[in-house]
Amino acid sequence: MMKSRFKKIINCLVLLLCLITKVSAQEQPNIIFILADDMGYGDMEVYGHPYTKTPHLDKLANSGKVFTQGYMSAAWCSPSRAALMTGIYPAREFLSTFCIDVEKPSITKILHNGGYKTAHFGKWHIGGGKRSPNAPPPSAYGIDESFTTQSTGDGFTREDKKLPHYREHTTTKYIDLAIDFAKRNKKEPFFINLWLYPTHSYINPLPQYLERFKDLKVNIDDFEGEAQRDFLTYMSKHTDINKSMQAYCADVANLDDEIGRLLTALKKMKLDKNTIIIFSSDNGPGPILNNIEKLQKRFITKPLLVNSVGSVGEFQGRKGSMYEGGIRAPWIISWPKYIKKGITDTETILTGVDFLPTLSAMVGAETPKDLVIDGEDMSKAVLGNTHPRTKMAFFSDKPNWYTVRDGKWKAHLHLNKIKLYDIESDKGEKVDLTAQEPEIARKYEKILRQMKKEFHQKEAAIH
Fold first, then answer.
1. What is the DSSP code string of 64-103?
2. Most CB within 10 Å of its CB: which of 53, 114, 333, 366?
3. Burial of 398 (0-12, 13-18, 19+ CB in 10 A)
4. Which of 30, 34, 85 shows the shortest CA–CA distance to 356?
5. Strand, coil or helix: 264
């Protein structure tokens, strides 16, 4: 009889433990990280674009927190994505292999080990392709389901890519996959990397989206930043700037509508209150401007490139540049259950390598005790008030350019020459203060030269 009673007690305890585990799992938030491709800091209404229409992204912004001092840790696609996944500056290892180390922690592995169902839909670009053709597939990184481009995993076929408007239809496919994944896993926490194609070249919008902007006429003075105005003036010599801007706005509108469809689906599934939605972009807008002669030839061979007229806001530099326009990115984070709505954080400096430690802390995911990363847990800033970072923010994705942001100071070691800017008062990085502030300049030059020595021990040929 004692054995029978003891067995009943054990069974009750097991049942109770299962119930507690179930409740805990249901209370954990879902997470969807939406990453645009080459979308400029100033390309949404909420970030000051005079022409784009982004009602769904603006609604997302109003439901949570907008960061105006958010960055990616690199100025082009592949290394910026590696930093997001690993919390490690890409110049340390990634640029030697163009493949994230499968033996080291990644945000997807951490969440998967913490009980999350994980998916990656969209561009991968952190292993696979010409630079690393034998890279592991996404499934090697704790990802349960994936459908990707530029990876060794499942994705679109060659025949798919020949279809009309293939590029534009990828977003619909990825959103469909994300909605389906959420439906099938809504009773347990899930994480989705939703890394979309827009606004990467070559932009060829669907007719119904072009129709929305057919009457748009560009007044270059409508744009706040001098560098952006200069860029559009340059582009107007090589294209009908009205048609190019119409195409770009149409591409952004298509992206916004598809994100709106996802948000509506989450609400119908009653998942909207306890789902963290993060929106950002992997780097500044194209095209890369480091070789004007080559660019002008590409306008002829790739005529749709003239539609890449994204906005860097009030900054200078574009994709491929360590100036603000190349690395400053929109960061929108919504979590209705815990983040107050309608807040704009203009002080917190948030970077790509912070993504892993910040998100892990927000959802209580356990990270390895011996984890060594460059990123910093900025969850206090996300969930509460502004929060000063304790680490300097470094940026480098090529062997000849190293940059540091430290409070109001930003310094570049570019082509072996130091430049210093007060980024708070000089957002356009127009006034080099090296001569006026020699001690500060020497301080950061020393730091950056050490960074160069440490980071690029194995220099890769980056094109």
1. SEEESSBB-SSSSHHHHHHHHHHSS-TTTTHHHHSS--TT
2. 333
3. buried
4. 85
5. helix
**What pLDDT shows up at residue 27?**
87
- Positive or negative, the CA dihedral 147, 121, 100, 130 is positive
Tokens representing 418 are 């130091």
Instruction: Please check whether residue 362 is in contact with residue 276, taking contact to mean a CB–CB distance below 8 angstroms.
Output: yes
Q: Name the token pair of 7.
A: 């067995």
Taking only the tens place, the pLDDT of each residue in 136-189 is: 999 999 999 999 999 999 999 999 999 999 999 999 999 999 999 999 999 999
The total of other beta-carbon atoms located within 10 Å of residue 146's CB is: 22
Cross-strand partners of 123? 149
- Coil, helix or strand at residue 403: strand
Tokens read off for 108? 């997807």
Q: Give the pLDDT mean for 65-78.
A: 98
pLDDT over threshold 90, residue 461: no
Q: Which amino acid is at 260?
A: G
Fold entry, domain 399-463: Arylsulfatase, C-terminal domain (3.30.1120)
* Inter-CA distances, 112 with 19, 34, 118, 301, 356, Å: 21, 18, 6, 44, 13
Domains of the chain: which residue ranges? 28-386, 399-463
The DSSP element (H or E) to which 394 belongs, if any, is strand 393-398
Number of H helices, E strands in the chain: 15, 12
28-386 homologous superfamily: Alkaline Phosphatase, subunit A (3.40.720.10)
For residues 43-75, one letter each, b for 16 or more C-beta atoms within 10 angstroms of the residue's C-beta and e for the rest, the string is bbbbbbbebbbbebbbebbebbbbbbbbbbbbb
Burial class (CB in 10 A: 0-12, 13-18, 19+), 186: middle
Residue 301: enclosing H or E segment and its boundaries?
helix 292-301
Q: Which residues pair with 277 in a beta bridge?
A: 32, 334
- DSSP 8-class letter at 23: H
**CB 209 within 8 Å of CB 254:** yes
| Percent over 70 (pLDDT), the chain | 93
Q: What's the average model confidence in pLDDT over 214-231?
A: 97
Helices (H), 117-219: 158-161, 166-184, 207-212
